[in-house]
Amino acid sequence: MGFEVLWIERETRFEVAPDETVLDAALRQGVALPHECTFGGCGTCRMQVRDGTVDYEELPMALTEDEVARGVGLACQARPRSDLVISVMPPGHCSDPVQVEATVLGVVSLGHDVTHLQLQLPDGQELIYQPGQYMNVHLPDGRCRSFSMASRPDAQRVDFHVRRIPGGHFTDGQIAALRPGDRLPVEIPLGSFRLHKEDERPLVMVATGTGLAPIKSMLESLMDDDDCPPVHLYWGARTPDDLYLHDAIAAWAERLYEFRYVPVLSRAGSGWNGRTGYVQDAVLADLDDLSEPAFYLCGSPAMIADAKAAFIGRGASVDHIYSDSFVFQPR
């Protein structure tokens, strides 16, 4: 015997078969629950279980025990043990995802392993997306790769930061061969990670690696905004060479309110005079009161899991911690 799930915001009901996950059941019946990695690593399919119970074969990486106790679940791993009422908020006002042929405008190196990819969307395809969302690049073999937008929302031009993964079909192969004018099949916009201006809280942004990309999109959307809250940006990397936008970020202070930038290196070397260690530990060392800010965490799943647990333990509001884990898709 299966169970019924009611998605409050969409007033949609669907059936879940025995031992089927909420997400698998939704997709089988054409219900578009937000999702990405499908194996519990990214947190995109986060839902609030308003009524009913679910369980897991093991606790997913993108979920903490405290969140489970507060009724938060991951649809891709959660198996209902009763009828459910779930709440999944849409990512603000944005276009429905569409697959289009984007035109390459530029492919420029930002450092030893990061490429700045700029795409032009088709004329007449005026997409509305939220800072923090991402796109999928569709590969010839039917797979896709996900990349967060690194620029403020623009109907026609979109920027991305693509880290080279040794042996990666797209990041270590196809992207090096791209030239202006080439076409890429992409699906855009996707994801529920976004800036929540309605919170009206100070912002603490914590990123590792190219997790900076959606954070940059959010901060660019706040530049020259009279309602911009105070912003702390903590960017974690291994070596100074990995801080591919280090000099540019310093200039953001001229256009953001009470902006503080703290780079943190885990393998700094003798020539580095800045902060060292893990980026989440730098936040804990600097900020005594974690109850007031909204936190945006993006990058390594391990950083995000550790940061969530530590920040909540120091009084951060669970309802104001937003995250996007950068995980590799399984074949």
Q: Please state the structural category.
A: alpha/beta
Q: What characteristic shape results from the CA principal axes? A: globular
Weakly predicted, low-confidence segments: none
Instruction: Please write the string of helix (H) and strand (E) elements.
Output: EEHEEHEEEEEEEEHEEHEHEEHEHE
Biggest β-sheet description: 6 strands, antiparallel
Write the CATH fold name of the largest domain. Answer: Rossmann fold
Radius of gyration: 20 Å
| Order of neighbouring strands in the sheet with most strands | 11-10-13-8-9-12
Beta-strand share of residues: 25-35%
Q: Count of DSSP E strands?
A: 19
Classified in CATH, the superfamily of the largest domain is: Nucleotide-binding domain of ferredoxin-NADP reductase (FNR) module
Q: Summed up, what is this model?
A:
Helices cover 17% and strands 31% of the residues. The chain is of the alpha/beta class and 331 residues long. The protein starts with a strand and ends in a 6-residue tail after the last strand.
